[in-house]
Amino acid sequence: MEMKAQSETTHAIPVQLLVELENGVAALYDRFAEQYPEDRSFWIELRNEEMEHADVLNEFEKSHFGFENQASIASDISQEVAEMMVSKVRNLMADMHKQSPSRKEALWLALQLEQSAGEFHYRAISGVLNGAAGRPPALWKDDFDHAARIRSYIERMTKIFN
């Protein structure tokens, strides 16, 4: 019997956990939009795209499994890692009630989240969403695009304030 390498191990990740992550990031960006009105349109655009990602995942689940809230996808990333990412976003939201990040810190937090989410989506669901909701499946590409846009925004902001 042939043993699988650790990187070839597959895990089941509930699609709704991925939806929860997208919705959590959307809520965080919504909070940033409220907190930093000078950046409101930037954050709202990112929030809307995160909500669209959640819709893509819901549509994938519905179209491929015929129901929502019960399907899982096979991934080389464990459910525990996905839960840790959701927890990280929840903790950021909770911490904002105690102490809000500065405008610059909010941008850096978002950049880190998008880079992590991009890697997570690439490793967790790359190739799984082919044809989902009639759009390209590569949520990870959107995450890396978000990261590039945030990085560019930080650079423009830095030039303005320096």
Features:
162 residues; mainly alpha; 2 strands; Ferritin; two-stranded antiparallel ribbon; single chain; elongated
Please provide a brief summary of the model.
The protein is mainly α and 162 residues long.
Shape: elongated
Domain count: 1
CATH topology description: Ferritin
Strand arrangement across the biggest beta sheet: 1-2
Radius of gyration: 17 Å
What percent strand? Answer: under 5%
| N- to C-terminal distance | 63 Å
- Low-pLDDT segments, ≥5 res: 1-7, 130-136
Number of strands: 2
Helix coverage percent of residues? 55-70%
DSSP summary: helix tally: 5
Average pLDDT, rounded to a whole number, is 80
Largest sheet: 2 strands, antiparallel
- CATH architecture call: Up-down Bundle
Structural class determined from secondary elements: mainly alpha
CATH class term: Mainly Alpha
Compressed to H and E, one letter per element, the order equals EHHEHHH
